[in-house]
Structure prediction request, 598 residues.
Amino acid sequence: MADSKTGELMEKIVSLSKRRGFIFQSSEIYGGLNGFWDYGPLGAELKRNLKERWWKSMTQFRDDIVGLEASIIMHPRIWEASGHTSTFSDLMVDCLLTKKRFRADQVEPQNGIAYFFTGAADPQGKESKDAFSVLVPRGKPPESARKAARQFYEQRGIQNPVLQGERSEPVENSTRYNPENGSLLTEPRPFNLMLKTYVGPVESADNLAYLRPETAQAIFAQFKNVLEVSRQKVPFGIAQIGKAFRNEINPRNFTFRSREFEQMELEFFIRPDEAVEAIYGGVAKPAAPGHPGEPQPNWGWRIWHQYWVEERLRFYESIGLPRNSLVEYWQKPDELAHYARATVDILYKFPFSKRDEKGELMGEELEGIAARSDFDLSQHQRFAGKSMTVFDEDLKAAWPKLSPEKQAELRQCYAEARTKYLSKTGESPDKAKALGQQEADALTKGYYVPHVIEPSAGVDRLALALICNAYCEDQAPDDKGKLESRVVMRFHPRIAPTKVAVFPLLKNKPELVRRAREVYELLRPHMTVFYDEAGAIGRRYRRQDEAGTPFGVTIDFETLGEQGPDLKDTVTLRDRDAMTQERVSIKDLPSMLSAKLC
Ligand code: GAP
Prediction:
Protein backbone atom coordinates (compact mmCIF):
# COMPACT_ATOMS: atom_id res chain seq x y z
CA MET A 1 0.00 0.00 0.00
CA ALA A 2 1.21 3.50 -0.75
CA ASP A 3 1.67 5.50 2.45
CA SER A 4 0.01 8.90 2.92
CA LYS A 5 3.14 10.83 1.92
CA THR A 6 3.54 9.02 -1.36
CA GLY A 7 -0.24 9.18 -1.87
CA GLU A 8 0.00 12.96 -1.46
CA LEU A 9 2.88 13.08 -3.95
CA MET A 10 0.87 11.10 -6.51
CA GLU A 11 -2.06 13.48 -6.00
CA LYS A 12 0.22 16.43 -6.76
CA ILE A 13 1.56 14.67 -9.87
CA VAL A 14 -1.94 13.84 -11.12
CA SER A 15 -3.08 17.39 -10.49
CA LEU A 16 -0.05 18.94 -12.22
CA SER A 17 -0.54 16.55 -15.14
CA LYS A 18 -4.02 17.92 -15.68
CA ARG A 19 -3.25 21.57 -14.86
CA ARG A 20 -0.28 21.75 -17.23
CA GLY A 21 -1.73 19.56 -19.99
CA PHE A 22 0.29 16.39 -19.68
CA ILE A 23 -2.56 13.92 -19.11
CA PHE A 24 -6.34 14.32 -19.03
CA GLN A 25 -9.02 11.82 -18.17
CA SER A 26 -10.54 10.49 -21.40
CA SER A 27 -14.11 11.68 -22.12
CA GLU A 28 -13.92 13.89 -19.04
CA ILE A 29 -16.92 16.02 -20.01
CA TYR A 30 -19.06 12.85 -19.85
CA GLY A 31 -17.66 11.77 -16.49
CA GLY A 32 -14.63 9.92 -17.87
CA LEU A 33 -14.11 6.31 -18.91
CA ASN A 34 -12.18 4.15 -16.48
CA GLY A 35 -8.82 3.00 -17.82
CA PHE A 36 -8.60 5.46 -20.72
CA TRP A 37 -6.46 8.61 -20.85
CA ASP A 38 -5.70 11.47 -23.22
CA TYR A 39 -2.39 13.27 -23.53
CA GLY A 40 -2.54 17.07 -23.65
CA PRO A 41 -0.11 19.35 -25.51
CA LEU A 42 2.86 18.70 -23.22
CA GLY A 43 2.08 15.01 -22.72
CA ALA A 44 1.78 14.45 -26.47
CA GLU A 45 5.24 15.99 -27.04
CA LEU A 46 6.73 13.97 -24.18
CA LYS A 47 5.35 10.70 -25.56
CA ARG A 48 6.48 11.49 -29.09
CA ASN A 49 9.97 12.27 -27.84
CA LEU A 50 10.37 9.04 -25.98
CA LYS A 51 8.92 6.91 -28.78
CA GLU A 52 11.21 8.63 -31.27
CA ARG A 53 14.18 8.05 -29.00
CA TRP A 54 13.34 4.33 -28.70
CA TRP A 55 12.70 4.02 -32.44
CA LYS A 56 15.95 5.71 -33.38
CA SER A 57 17.99 3.73 -30.85
CA MET A 58 16.56 0.50 -32.27
CA THR A 59 16.51 1.20 -36.00
CA GLN A 60 18.50 4.27 -37.07
CA PHE A 61 21.51 3.56 -34.88
CA ARG A 62 21.69 -0.17 -35.53
CA ASP A 63 22.27 -2.27 -38.63
CA ASP A 64 20.55 -5.36 -37.27
CA ILE A 65 16.99 -4.11 -36.53
CA VAL A 66 14.24 -3.06 -38.91
CA GLY A 67 10.80 -1.61 -38.23
CA LEU A 68 7.22 -2.72 -38.72
CA GLU A 69 3.87 -1.01 -38.37
CA ALA A 70 1.10 -3.60 -38.38
CA SER A 71 -2.67 -3.37 -38.08
CA ILE A 72 -4.34 -3.44 -34.68
CA ILE A 73 -6.98 -5.95 -35.69
CA MET A 74 -5.60 -9.16 -37.10
CA HIS A 75 -6.85 -12.60 -38.02
CA PRO A 76 -8.35 -14.19 -34.88
CA ARG A 77 -6.27 -17.35 -35.44
CA ILE A 78 -3.22 -15.30 -34.46
CA TRP A 79 -4.56 -15.15 -30.90
CA GLU A 80 -5.25 -18.86 -30.88
CA ALA A 81 -1.67 -19.55 -31.95
CA SER A 82 -0.23 -17.16 -29.38
CA GLY A 83 -2.32 -18.67 -26.58
CA HIS A 84 -4.20 -15.44 -25.84
CA THR A 85 -7.64 -16.87 -26.63
CA SER A 86 -7.25 -19.68 -24.14
CA THR A 87 -4.95 -18.31 -21.45
CA PHE A 88 -4.78 -14.51 -21.50
CA SER A 89 -6.92 -14.15 -18.42
CA ASP A 90 -6.79 -12.75 -14.93
CA LEU A 91 -8.68 -14.36 -12.09
CA MET A 92 -11.51 -12.13 -10.93
CA VAL A 93 -13.85 -12.14 -7.96
CA ASP A 94 -17.10 -10.20 -7.38
CA CYS A 95 -18.47 -8.81 -4.14
CA LEU A 96 -21.68 -10.71 -3.31
CA LEU A 97 -23.23 -7.54 -1.92
CA THR A 98 -22.21 -4.72 -4.26
CA LYS A 99 -21.16 -6.77 -7.35
CA LYS A 100 -17.93 -4.77 -7.45
CA ARG A 101 -15.26 -6.69 -9.34
CA PHE A 102 -11.65 -7.21 -8.19
CA ARG A 103 -8.61 -8.91 -9.60
CA ALA A 104 -8.23 -11.91 -7.28
CA ASP A 105 -4.50 -11.35 -6.77
CA GLN A 106 -5.07 -7.71 -5.77
CA VAL A 107 -7.41 -8.35 -2.84
CA GLU A 108 -5.62 -7.31 0.36
CA PRO A 109 -5.55 -10.11 2.98
CA GLN A 110 -7.98 -9.47 5.87
CA ASN A 111 -8.20 -10.52 9.54
CA GLY A 112 -11.27 -10.53 11.78
CA ILE A 113 -14.28 -12.59 12.78
CA ALA A 114 -16.18 -14.24 9.94
CA TYR A 115 -19.93 -14.73 10.43
CA PHE A 116 -21.56 -17.47 8.37
CA PHE A 117 -25.26 -17.81 7.52
CA THR A 118 -26.83 -20.82 5.85
CA GLY A 119 -29.88 -18.91 4.56
CA ALA A 120 -32.83 -16.74 5.54
CA ALA A 121 -36.62 -16.76 5.42
CA ASP A 122 -39.28 -14.08 5.56
CA PRO A 123 -42.38 -14.17 7.85
CA GLN A 124 -44.49 -15.39 4.89
CA GLY A 125 -42.27 -18.47 4.63
CA LYS A 126 -40.33 -17.45 1.51
CA GLU A 127 -36.82 -18.85 1.89
CA SER A 128 -33.31 -18.49 0.43
CA LYS A 129 -30.80 -21.30 0.99
CA ASP A 130 -27.89 -19.27 -0.44
CA ALA A 131 -25.00 -19.34 2.02
CA PHE A 132 -23.43 -15.99 2.88
CA SER A 133 -20.55 -14.86 5.01
CA VAL A 134 -19.21 -11.52 6.16
CA LEU A 135 -16.00 -10.53 7.89
CA VAL A 136 -16.03 -7.89 10.61
CA PRO A 137 -13.02 -6.48 12.46
CA ARG A 138 -12.38 -7.97 15.90
CA GLY A 139 -14.31 -6.09 18.61
CA LYS A 140 -17.07 -4.90 16.27
CA PRO A 141 -20.55 -6.06 17.37
CA PRO A 142 -22.07 -9.02 15.46
CA GLU A 143 -25.06 -6.82 14.58
CA SER A 144 -23.01 -5.22 11.77
CA ALA A 145 -22.51 -8.70 10.23
CA ARG A 146 -26.23 -9.44 10.56
CA LYS A 147 -27.10 -6.13 8.92
CA ALA A 148 -24.96 -7.00 5.88
CA ALA A 149 -26.47 -10.50 5.75
CA ARG A 150 -30.03 -9.11 5.84
CA GLN A 151 -29.08 -6.82 2.93
CA PHE A 152 -27.77 -9.86 1.02
CA TYR A 153 -31.02 -11.81 1.49
CA GLU A 154 -33.19 -8.77 0.74
CA GLN A 155 -31.42 -8.57 -2.62
CA ARG A 156 -32.64 -12.15 -3.14
CA GLY A 157 -36.27 -11.18 -2.58
CA ILE A 158 -36.59 -12.04 1.14
CA GLN A 159 -38.39 -9.17 2.89
CA ASN A 160 -37.58 -8.68 6.62
CA PRO A 161 -35.32 -11.75 6.52
CA VAL A 162 -34.85 -13.94 9.58
CA LEU A 163 -31.30 -15.22 9.39
CA GLN A 164 -30.58 -18.93 9.68
CA GLY A 165 -27.63 -21.05 10.85
CA GLU A 166 -25.45 -18.28 12.20
CA ARG A 167 -21.97 -19.26 13.39
CA SER A 168 -18.67 -17.39 13.63
CA GLU A 169 -14.95 -18.06 13.63
CA PRO A 170 -11.74 -16.02 13.62
CA VAL A 171 -10.05 -15.61 10.21
CA GLU A 172 -6.44 -14.63 9.44
CA ASN A 173 -5.00 -13.33 6.17
CA SER A 174 -8.01 -14.23 4.08
CA THR A 175 -8.48 -12.89 0.56
CA ARG A 176 -12.05 -14.19 0.34
CA TYR A 177 -13.63 -10.98 1.64
CA ASN A 178 -14.17 -7.53 0.12
CA PRO A 179 -11.75 -5.20 1.97
CA GLU A 180 -14.26 -2.35 1.55
CA ASN A 181 -17.32 -3.89 3.25
CA GLY A 182 -16.32 -7.36 4.53
CA SER A 183 -18.76 -9.19 2.23
CA LEU A 184 -17.86 -12.63 0.92
CA LEU A 185 -16.46 -12.63 -2.64
CA THR A 186 -17.34 -15.13 -5.35
CA GLU A 187 -14.90 -17.95 -6.11
CA PRO A 188 -12.12 -16.72 -8.44
CA ARG A 189 -12.85 -17.33 -12.11
CA PRO A 190 -10.86 -16.48 -15.24
CA PHE A 191 -11.69 -13.38 -17.23
CA ASN A 192 -10.18 -13.04 -20.72
CA LEU A 193 -8.62 -9.60 -21.10
CA MET A 194 -8.92 -9.27 -24.86
CA LEU A 195 -11.33 -6.61 -26.13
CA LYS A 196 -13.66 -7.99 -28.74
CA THR A 197 -15.19 -6.45 -31.82
CA TYR A 198 -16.86 -7.62 -35.06
CA VAL A 199 -15.41 -7.13 -38.50
CA GLY A 200 -17.99 -6.29 -41.16
CA PRO A 201 -21.70 -5.62 -40.84
CA VAL A 202 -22.74 -8.92 -39.24
CA GLU A 203 -22.22 -9.41 -35.51
CA SER A 204 -21.73 -13.17 -35.58
CA ALA A 205 -19.19 -15.55 -34.08
CA ASP A 206 -17.63 -15.90 -37.55
CA ASN A 207 -16.86 -12.19 -37.61
CA LEU A 208 -15.47 -11.94 -34.10
CA ALA A 209 -12.09 -10.20 -33.90
CA TYR A 210 -9.90 -8.77 -31.15
CA LEU A 211 -8.13 -5.50 -30.59
CA ARG A 212 -4.55 -6.68 -30.19
CA PRO A 213 -3.47 -7.15 -26.56
CA GLU A 214 0.21 -6.80 -27.58
CA THR A 215 2.07 -5.65 -30.65
CA ALA A 216 4.43 -8.63 -30.63
CA GLN A 217 2.30 -11.16 -32.47
CA ALA A 218 2.19 -9.10 -35.66
CA ILE A 219 5.98 -9.24 -35.73
CA PHE A 220 5.92 -13.04 -35.57
CA ALA A 221 3.15 -13.26 -38.16
CA GLN A 222 5.12 -11.02 -40.57
CA PHE A 223 8.50 -12.57 -39.79
CA LYS A 224 8.95 -14.23 -43.17
CA ASN A 225 7.87 -11.19 -45.18
CA VAL A 226 10.24 -8.91 -43.29
CA LEU A 227 13.09 -11.38 -43.60
CA GLU A 228 12.62 -11.59 -47.35
CA VAL A 229 12.51 -7.86 -48.00
CA SER A 230 15.04 -6.58 -45.49
CA ARG A 231 18.11 -8.63 -46.52
CA GLN A 232 18.69 -9.36 -42.85
CA LYS A 233 20.08 -12.63 -41.52
CA VAL A 234 19.62 -14.15 -38.07
CA PRO A 235 20.58 -12.64 -35.61
CA PHE A 236 18.41 -9.63 -36.37
CA GLY A 237 15.39 -7.87 -34.89
CA ILE A 238 12.04 -6.36 -35.82
CA ALA A 239 10.81 -3.37 -33.82
CA GLN A 240 7.30 -2.02 -33.54
CA ILE A 241 5.55 0.75 -31.62
CA GLY A 242 1.78 0.77 -31.39
CA LYS A 243 -1.45 0.62 -29.48
CA ALA A 244 -2.49 -2.39 -27.43
CA PHE A 245 -5.76 -3.00 -25.58
CA ARG A 246 -6.55 -5.02 -22.50
CA ASN A 247 -9.87 -5.09 -20.73
CA GLU A 248 -8.15 -4.81 -17.34
CA ILE A 249 -10.44 -5.79 -14.46
CA ASN A 250 -9.11 -3.05 -12.28
CA PRO A 251 -7.32 -0.17 -14.06
CA ARG A 252 -5.39 1.76 -11.42
CA ASN A 253 -2.53 3.97 -10.37
CA PHE A 254 -3.28 6.77 -12.84
CA THR A 255 -2.12 5.62 -16.29
CA PHE A 256 -0.04 2.72 -14.96
CA ARG A 257 -2.63 0.05 -15.68
CA SER A 258 -4.85 1.27 -18.51
CA ARG A 259 -7.20 -0.45 -20.91
CA GLU A 260 -5.70 1.27 -23.95
CA PHE A 261 -1.95 1.84 -24.02
CA GLU A 262 1.06 1.79 -26.29
CA GLN A 263 3.89 -0.69 -26.42
CA MET A 264 7.40 -0.52 -27.86
CA GLU A 265 8.40 -4.09 -28.63
CA LEU A 266 11.44 -5.66 -30.17
CA GLU A 267 11.61 -9.27 -31.27
CA PHE A 268 15.27 -10.10 -31.67
CA PHE A 269 15.72 -13.39 -33.53
CA ILE A 270 18.76 -15.51 -32.75
CA ARG A 271 20.18 -18.89 -33.70
CA PRO A 272 19.40 -21.85 -31.47
CA ASP A 273 22.44 -22.66 -29.32
CA GLU A 274 22.97 -25.95 -31.19
CA ALA A 275 23.48 -23.99 -34.44
CA VAL A 276 25.88 -21.54 -32.75
CA GLU A 277 27.91 -24.42 -31.37
CA ALA A 278 28.01 -26.20 -34.72
CA ILE A 279 29.28 -23.08 -36.50
CA TYR A 280 31.67 -21.66 -33.90
CA GLY A 281 32.68 -24.73 -31.92
CA GLY A 282 31.19 -23.35 -28.71
CA VAL A 283 28.55 -21.04 -27.27
CA ALA A 284 29.65 -17.86 -25.50
CA LYS A 285 27.86 -17.43 -22.18
CA PRO A 286 27.87 -14.41 -19.84
CA ALA A 287 31.29 -14.15 -18.18
CA ALA A 288 30.28 -11.58 -15.57
CA PRO A 289 27.31 -9.41 -14.67
CA GLY A 290 26.90 -6.18 -16.64
CA HIS A 291 27.02 -5.28 -20.29
CA PRO A 292 28.79 -7.98 -22.34
CA GLY A 293 29.97 -5.52 -25.02
CA GLU A 294 29.46 -5.53 -28.78
CA PRO A 295 27.49 -8.54 -30.10
CA GLN A 296 29.60 -11.47 -31.20
CA PRO A 297 28.62 -14.23 -33.64
CA ASN A 298 29.22 -17.01 -31.09
CA TRP A 299 26.73 -15.64 -28.55
CA GLY A 300 24.10 -18.05 -27.21
CA TRP A 301 20.69 -17.07 -25.89
CA ARG A 302 21.89 -16.34 -22.34
CA ILE A 303 24.37 -13.69 -23.35
CA TRP A 304 21.96 -12.17 -25.88
CA HIS A 305 19.40 -11.93 -23.10
CA GLN A 306 21.88 -10.26 -20.76
CA TYR A 307 22.92 -7.91 -23.54
CA TRP A 308 19.34 -6.74 -24.07
CA VAL A 309 18.73 -6.26 -20.35
CA GLU A 310 21.80 -4.04 -20.17
CA GLU A 311 20.97 -2.18 -23.39
CA ARG A 312 17.52 -1.39 -22.06
CA LEU A 313 18.89 -0.18 -18.73
CA ARG A 314 21.27 2.09 -20.63
CA PHE A 315 18.34 3.42 -22.64
CA TYR A 316 16.43 4.35 -19.49
CA GLU A 317 19.48 6.07 -18.04
CA SER A 318 19.98 7.97 -21.31
CA ILE A 319 16.56 9.59 -20.95
CA GLY A 320 17.06 10.58 -17.36
CA LEU A 321 15.90 7.70 -15.15
CA PRO A 322 18.76 7.23 -12.70
CA ARG A 323 20.02 3.67 -12.22
CA ASN A 324 19.01 3.74 -8.55
CA SER A 325 15.38 4.43 -9.49
CA LEU A 326 15.29 1.17 -11.47
CA VAL A 327 15.20 -2.44 -10.27
CA GLU A 328 16.30 -5.43 -12.32
CA TYR A 329 14.01 -8.26 -11.27
CA TRP A 330 14.80 -11.79 -12.42
CA GLN A 331 11.61 -13.83 -12.49
CA LYS A 332 11.81 -16.99 -10.40
CA PRO A 333 11.34 -20.35 -12.18
CA ASP A 334 7.75 -20.68 -10.91
CA GLU A 335 6.90 -17.18 -12.22
CA LEU A 336 8.13 -17.81 -15.78
CA ALA A 337 5.71 -18.35 -18.65
CA HIS A 338 5.93 -22.02 -19.72
CA TYR A 339 7.83 -21.16 -22.93
CA ALA A 340 10.21 -18.61 -21.35
CA ARG A 341 13.74 -19.58 -20.43
CA ALA A 342 14.41 -16.39 -18.48
CA THR A 343 12.61 -13.09 -17.98
CA VAL A 344 13.93 -9.92 -16.42
CA ASP A 345 11.49 -7.20 -15.50
CA ILE A 346 12.81 -3.66 -15.32
CA LEU A 347 10.92 -1.94 -12.53
CA TYR A 348 10.69 1.76 -11.76
CA LYS A 349 10.24 2.90 -8.19
CA PHE A 350 6.90 4.69 -8.62
CA PRO A 351 5.61 6.58 -5.57
CA PHE A 352 2.73 4.07 -5.40
CA SER A 353 5.01 1.00 -5.46
CA LYS A 354 4.87 -1.33 -2.48
CA ARG A 355 7.69 -1.10 0.07
CA ASP A 356 9.86 -3.96 1.30
CA GLU A 357 10.50 -4.71 4.97
CA LYS A 358 13.29 -2.07 5.02
CA GLY A 359 10.83 0.56 3.77
CA GLU A 360 12.41 0.72 0.29
CA LEU A 361 10.17 1.14 -2.75
CA MET A 362 10.12 -2.18 -4.60
CA GLY A 363 9.15 -0.82 -8.00
CA GLU A 364 6.56 -1.66 -10.68
CA GLU A 365 7.16 -3.08 -14.14
CA LEU A 366 8.18 -0.78 -16.96
CA GLU A 367 9.42 -3.46 -19.30
CA GLY A 368 9.92 -7.21 -19.51
CA ILE A 369 12.85 -8.77 -21.34
CA ALA A 370 12.06 -12.38 -22.08
CA ALA A 371 14.04 -15.18 -23.68
CA ARG A 372 11.07 -16.89 -25.35
CA SER A 373 12.87 -19.79 -27.10
CA ASP A 374 11.38 -20.68 -30.51
CA PHE A 375 7.86 -20.91 -29.10
CA ASP A 376 6.17 -18.04 -30.95
CA LEU A 377 7.34 -18.79 -34.48
CA SER A 378 6.73 -22.50 -33.91
CA GLN A 379 3.16 -21.80 -32.85
CA HIS A 380 2.46 -19.75 -35.98
CA GLN A 381 4.12 -22.43 -38.09
CA ARG A 382 1.70 -24.99 -36.66
CA PHE A 383 -1.44 -22.87 -36.72
CA ALA A 384 -0.91 -21.22 -40.11
CA GLY A 385 0.70 -24.27 -41.71
CA LYS A 386 3.45 -22.00 -43.12
CA SER A 387 7.12 -22.69 -42.57
CA MET A 388 8.87 -20.31 -40.18
CA THR A 389 12.28 -21.90 -40.62
CA VAL A 390 15.26 -19.99 -41.96
CA PHE A 391 18.11 -21.38 -44.00
CA ASP A 392 21.54 -20.72 -42.51
CA GLU A 393 24.40 -21.11 -45.01
CA ASP A 394 27.02 -21.01 -42.27
CA LEU A 395 25.34 -23.87 -40.44
CA LYS A 396 25.04 -25.96 -43.59
CA ALA A 397 28.72 -25.42 -44.34
CA ALA A 398 29.84 -26.12 -40.74
CA TRP A 399 27.86 -29.29 -40.09
CA PRO A 400 29.85 -31.77 -42.26
CA LYS A 401 33.08 -30.57 -40.61
CA LEU A 402 31.90 -31.62 -37.12
CA SER A 403 33.01 -34.91 -35.59
CA PRO A 404 30.34 -37.66 -35.69
CA GLU A 405 30.12 -37.48 -31.85
CA LYS A 406 29.48 -33.73 -31.92
CA GLN A 407 26.93 -34.13 -34.69
CA ALA A 408 25.10 -36.79 -32.67
CA GLU A 409 25.22 -34.72 -29.49
CA LEU A 410 23.86 -31.52 -31.09
CA ARG A 411 21.29 -33.43 -33.11
CA GLN A 412 20.07 -35.22 -29.99
CA CYS A 413 19.89 -32.00 -27.99
CA TYR A 414 17.89 -30.22 -30.69
CA ALA A 415 15.57 -33.19 -31.24
CA GLU A 416 14.82 -33.35 -27.51
CA ALA A 417 13.98 -29.64 -27.31
CA ARG A 418 11.66 -29.84 -30.31
CA THR A 419 10.03 -33.05 -29.04
CA LYS A 420 9.39 -31.34 -25.69
CA TYR A 421 7.73 -28.37 -27.41
CA LEU A 422 5.62 -30.63 -29.66
CA SER A 423 4.52 -32.79 -26.72
CA LYS A 424 3.32 -29.67 -24.91
CA THR A 425 1.17 -28.78 -27.90
CA GLY A 426 -0.75 -32.02 -27.42
CA GLU A 427 0.97 -34.27 -29.99
CA SER A 428 1.16 -37.93 -28.98
CA PRO A 429 4.60 -38.94 -27.60
CA ASP A 430 5.39 -41.03 -30.71
CA LYS A 431 4.39 -38.31 -33.16
CA ALA A 432 6.22 -35.62 -31.16
CA LYS A 433 9.36 -37.78 -31.18
CA ALA A 434 9.12 -38.48 -34.91
CA LEU A 435 8.59 -34.80 -35.74
CA GLY A 436 11.39 -33.80 -33.36
CA GLN A 437 13.74 -36.15 -35.25
CA GLN A 438 12.63 -34.68 -38.59
CA GLU A 439 13.36 -31.18 -37.37
CA ALA A 440 16.76 -32.29 -36.10
CA ASP A 441 17.45 -33.70 -39.58
CA ALA A 442 16.55 -30.32 -41.02
CA LEU A 443 18.99 -28.66 -38.61
CA THR A 444 21.83 -30.74 -40.00
CA LYS A 445 21.03 -29.26 -43.43
CA GLY A 446 20.99 -25.69 -42.12
CA TYR A 447 17.27 -25.15 -41.31
CA TYR A 448 15.80 -24.12 -37.98
CA VAL A 449 13.07 -21.99 -36.38
CA PRO A 450 14.83 -18.97 -34.84
CA HIS A 451 14.71 -18.31 -31.11
CA VAL A 452 13.78 -14.88 -29.82
CA ILE A 453 14.68 -12.37 -27.14
CA GLU A 454 11.85 -9.92 -26.53
CA PRO A 455 12.33 -6.54 -24.82
CA SER A 456 8.76 -5.29 -24.40
CA ALA A 457 8.15 -1.84 -22.93
CA GLY A 458 5.07 0.26 -22.22
CA VAL A 459 5.12 3.83 -23.55
CA ASP A 460 2.53 5.12 -21.08
CA ARG A 461 4.21 3.57 -18.08
CA LEU A 462 7.48 5.08 -19.18
CA ALA A 463 5.86 8.50 -19.65
CA LEU A 464 4.42 8.20 -16.14
CA ALA A 465 7.80 7.16 -14.73
CA LEU A 466 9.44 10.17 -16.41
CA ILE A 467 6.77 12.50 -15.01
CA CYS A 468 7.17 11.06 -11.49
CA ASN A 469 10.95 11.22 -11.77
CA ALA A 470 10.90 14.80 -13.03
CA TYR A 471 8.55 16.19 -10.37
CA CYS A 472 10.44 18.32 -7.87
CA GLU A 473 9.64 21.10 -5.42
CA ASP A 474 12.39 23.55 -4.52
CA GLN A 475 13.07 27.25 -3.98
CA ALA A 476 13.85 29.86 -6.61
CA PRO A 477 14.24 33.65 -6.45
CA ASP A 478 11.33 35.80 -7.63
CA ASP A 479 11.74 39.07 -9.63
CA LYS A 480 12.94 40.87 -6.49
CA GLY A 481 15.38 38.11 -5.53
CA LYS A 482 13.19 36.77 -2.72
CA LEU A 483 13.10 32.97 -2.51
CA GLU A 484 9.77 31.37 -3.30
CA SER A 485 8.87 27.74 -3.68
CA ARG A 486 8.55 26.40 -7.19
CA VAL A 487 7.46 23.17 -8.84
CA VAL A 488 9.95 22.14 -11.45
CA MET A 489 9.76 19.20 -13.84
CA ARG A 490 13.37 18.13 -14.27
CA PHE A 491 12.96 16.26 -17.56
CA HIS A 492 16.14 15.27 -19.32
CA PRO A 493 16.50 17.78 -22.21
CA ARG A 494 16.34 14.84 -24.65
CA ILE A 495 12.73 14.07 -23.79
CA ALA A 496 11.50 17.43 -22.43
CA PRO A 497 8.27 18.40 -24.26
CA THR A 498 9.49 21.96 -24.97
CA LYS A 499 13.22 22.45 -25.33
CA VAL A 500 13.52 26.20 -25.03
CA ALA A 501 11.33 29.17 -24.15
CA VAL A 502 11.99 32.60 -25.66
CA PHE A 503 11.10 35.72 -23.69
CA PRO A 504 11.35 39.42 -24.56
CA LEU A 505 12.20 41.12 -21.25
CA LEU A 506 9.26 43.52 -21.71
CA LYS A 507 6.33 43.14 -24.05
CA ASN A 508 5.70 46.85 -24.49
CA LYS A 509 9.09 47.51 -26.13
CA PRO A 510 8.57 46.75 -29.85
CA GLU A 511 12.30 46.36 -30.52
CA LEU A 512 12.64 43.69 -27.77
CA VAL A 513 9.59 41.87 -29.09
CA ARG A 514 10.84 42.02 -32.66
CA ARG A 515 14.24 40.57 -31.73
CA ALA A 516 12.60 37.89 -29.55
CA ARG A 517 10.36 36.81 -32.45
CA GLU A 518 13.46 36.60 -34.66
CA VAL A 519 15.19 34.32 -32.13
CA TYR A 520 12.02 32.22 -31.92
CA GLU A 521 11.96 31.80 -35.72
CA LEU A 522 15.69 31.05 -35.73
CA LEU A 523 15.30 28.18 -33.26
CA ARG A 524 12.03 26.54 -34.25
CA PRO A 525 13.33 24.56 -37.25
CA HIS A 526 15.68 22.78 -34.84
CA MET A 527 13.59 22.15 -31.73
CA THR A 528 10.25 22.78 -29.99
CA VAL A 529 10.24 26.40 -28.85
CA PHE A 530 7.70 28.30 -26.79
CA TYR A 531 7.34 32.06 -27.08
CA ASP A 532 6.03 33.89 -24.00
CA GLU A 533 5.77 37.63 -23.42
CA ALA A 534 2.96 37.68 -20.83
CA GLY A 535 3.67 38.71 -17.23
CA ALA A 536 6.76 39.38 -15.15
CA ILE A 537 9.86 37.49 -16.26
CA GLY A 538 9.99 35.54 -12.95
CA ARG A 539 6.44 34.27 -13.50
CA ARG A 540 7.30 33.26 -17.04
CA TYR A 541 10.30 31.26 -15.78
CA ARG A 542 8.07 29.54 -13.20
CA ARG A 543 5.57 28.52 -15.89
CA GLN A 544 8.33 26.95 -17.96
CA ASP A 545 9.81 25.25 -14.89
CA GLU A 546 6.48 23.53 -14.36
CA ALA A 547 6.36 22.49 -18.01
CA GLY A 548 9.88 21.08 -17.67
CA THR A 549 11.45 23.34 -20.32
CA PRO A 550 15.21 23.00 -19.75
CA PHE A 551 16.35 26.30 -21.30
CA GLY A 552 15.09 29.87 -21.37
CA VAL A 553 16.35 32.63 -23.65
CA THR A 554 15.72 36.26 -22.64
CA ILE A 555 16.08 39.16 -25.05
CA ASP A 556 16.95 42.30 -23.08
CA PHE A 557 18.37 45.78 -23.61
CA GLU A 558 21.90 44.42 -23.87
CA THR A 559 20.69 42.41 -26.91
CA LEU A 560 19.75 45.67 -28.58
CA GLY A 561 23.22 47.09 -27.92
CA GLU A 562 22.07 49.64 -25.34
CA GLN A 563 24.89 48.64 -22.94
CA GLY A 564 27.55 48.90 -25.62
CA PRO A 565 28.55 47.00 -28.75
CA ASP A 566 30.13 43.99 -26.94
CA LEU A 567 26.80 42.62 -25.75
CA LYS A 568 24.83 43.53 -28.86
CA ASP A 569 23.12 40.46 -30.40
CA THR A 570 23.67 38.38 -27.28
CA VAL A 571 20.94 36.95 -25.02
CA THR A 572 20.81 35.35 -21.59
CA LEU A 573 20.49 31.57 -21.60
CA ARG A 574 18.92 30.27 -18.40
CA ASP A 575 19.39 26.71 -17.21
CA ARG A 576 16.23 25.38 -15.51
CA ASP A 577 18.01 23.16 -12.98
CA ALA A 578 21.12 25.17 -12.09
CA MET A 579 19.17 28.44 -12.48
CA THR A 580 22.36 29.94 -13.90
CA GLN A 581 22.31 32.51 -16.68
CA GLU A 582 25.03 32.92 -19.25
CA ARG A 583 25.38 35.39 -22.11
CA VAL A 584 25.36 33.78 -25.49
CA SER A 585 25.58 35.15 -28.98
CA ILE A 586 22.29 34.68 -30.91
CA LYS A 587 24.07 33.16 -33.87
CA ASP A 588 25.54 30.40 -31.63
CA LEU A 589 22.20 29.47 -30.05
CA PRO A 590 21.00 26.81 -32.55
CA SER A 591 24.21 24.78 -32.45
CA MET A 592 24.76 25.27 -28.73
CA LEU A 593 21.23 24.17 -27.79
CA SER A 594 21.16 21.32 -30.32
CA ALA A 595 24.35 19.96 -28.76
CA LYS A 596 22.67 19.91 -25.34
CA LEU A 597 19.69 17.99 -26.72
CA CYS A 598 21.34 15.16 -28.61
N1 GAP B 1 4.69 -9.16 -25.66
C1 GAP B 1 4.91 -9.26 -24.26
C2 GAP B 1 4.01 -8.43 -23.46
O1 GAP B 1 3.06 -7.85 -23.94
P1 GAP B 1 3.58 -7.65 -21.02
O2 GAP B 1 4.47 -7.75 -19.81
O3 GAP B 1 2.21 -8.16 -20.90
O4 GAP B 1 4.38 -8.40 -22.17
C3 GAP B 1 4.72 -5.45 -21.85
O5 GAP B 1 3.54 -6.13 -21.51
C4 GAP B 1 4.68 -4.04 -21.32
O6 GAP B 1 3.47 -3.40 -21.74
C5 GAP B 1 4.64 -3.97 -19.78
O7 GAP B 1 5.93 -4.05 -19.23
C6 GAP B 1 4.03 -2.58 -19.58
O8 GAP B 1 5.01 -1.58 -19.69
C7 GAP B 1 3.06 -2.46 -20.74
N2 GAP B 1 1.70 -2.80 -20.29
C8 GAP B 1 1.15 -4.00 -20.16
N3 GAP B 1 -0.12 -3.90 -19.71
C9 GAP B 1 -0.37 -2.60 -19.54
C10 GAP B 1 -1.50 -1.83 -19.10
N4 GAP B 1 -2.64 -2.42 -18.78
N5 GAP B 1 -1.40 -0.48 -19.04
C11 GAP B 1 -0.25 0.13 -19.40
N6 GAP B 1 0.84 -0.53 -19.82
C12 GAP B 1 0.80 -1.87 -19.90
